[in-house]
Design a protein that fits this description.
single chain; alpha/beta; TIM Barrel; 9-stranded mixed β-sheet; two-stranded antiparallel sheet; globular; binds iron/sulfur cluster
Length: 260
């Protein structure tokens, strides 16, 4: 246990009282580093593993800090009464927690020792050997499928989806619970065919639910703060009516909702 408590990793935020990333009231730990470069990413400061400077209004903010598992767990434990009452717990998000597998495994092991319920938001892009190290300590997997077409997946995220889809099927087989989520982006996948293809796949592998997350522009200012261009500035978020139509299409195959 001592070895795991002292394990260090790099995060860029801890967000308390979230009700969106897993069941109940949760503390979200945002890991630094991700292998994808989704064009709609609302946390561009998460992508690079290096500690960065980001402009926020007139201020310069340092993004990223190194912490021990013990420091995080001490913070997370403060909200234990809320987790117990709501069925919540900790969610590892990012960035991508699988990019820091030793830190992630240690954190998840210690959370389980303390009886904290665990969830992860993940791209599932890692070797399956790495995933097998953490699956026993995860109660809920929230895993994105951004596109079923490997060419389009690469065009919009920078990586092919072959390994991702293979891993998601194995997670559905081996993990306690898998919910598939789709960032639903006009011009990328917010159409009936692409959503139906994803819904069919999620149903086939045995995912519990499908959650469609409507595209939004909340991260746009951060791109400017990092000196980067936001390439989706002409994309308009989908309307409620458009989202409801897509949910109805997905519902033919799997239990589906907007958000989650
Ligand atoms: S997988 Fe998530 S964190 Fe990584 S680039 Fe895509 S949206 Fe951002």
């Amino acid at each position: 246990m001592e070895k795991y408590l002292k394990t260090k990793g790099r995060i860029f935020n801890i967000q308390k009282f979230s009700i969106h990333d897993g069941p109940g009231i949760r503390t979200i730990v945002f890991f630094k580093g991700c292998k994808l470069r989704c064009k709609w990413c609302c946390n561009p400061e998460s992508q690079n593993f290096e500690i960065q400077q980001m402009k926020e209004g007139n201020k310069i903010k340092t993004v990223g800090k190194d912490v021990t598992v013990e420091e995080i767990v001490n913070d997370v434990l403060k909200d234990m009464p809320y987790y117990r009452r709501s069925g919540g717990g900790i969610t590892l998000s990012g960035g991508e927690f699988l990019c820091q597998i030793d830190f992630a495994e240690a954190l998840l092991r210690v959370c389980k020792e303390y009886g904290i319920t665990t969830a992860v938001e993940t791209t599932a892009l890692a070797s399956y050997e790495e995933l097998e190290r953490v699956i026993p300590f995860i109660d809920t997997f929230l895993t994105d499928i951004k596109h079923m077409d490997p060419v389009k997946h690469k065009q919009y995220t920078g990586v092919d989806n072959t390994l991702i889809l293979e891993n998601i099927a194995k997670i559905a087989r081996d993990a306690k619970e898998l919910i598939v989520r789709v960032p639903t982006v006009p011009g990328v996948n917010a159409n009936e065919k692409d959503i139906e293809d994803i819904a069919k796949y999620a149903a086939k592998i045995g995912a519990k639910e499908l959650h469609l997350l409507p595209y939004h522009r909340l991260g746009q200012d951060k791109y400017e703060g990092l000196g980067r261009e936001y390439t989706l500035k002409d994309v308009i978020p989908p309307s409620d009516t458009e989202m409801e139509k897509l949910v109805a299409v997905a519902q033919r195959h799997i239990n589906c909702q907007i958000g989650g």
